[in-house]
Amino acid sequence: MPTLIAKERDMILRDRDGTKQDVLSNQERMLRLAERDHGLTAKVIAAETGIPVPTIQSWRRSPPVAMALADFVLVCRVIPDSLTSLCTEPSGKHVGTNGPEEGDLDAVASHAGDFAHEYQKARHPASPGGVAIVPQEAAKLHEIRGGLVAVARRAA
Question: In which domain of life is the source organism classified (predicted)?
Answer without folding.
Answer: Bacteria
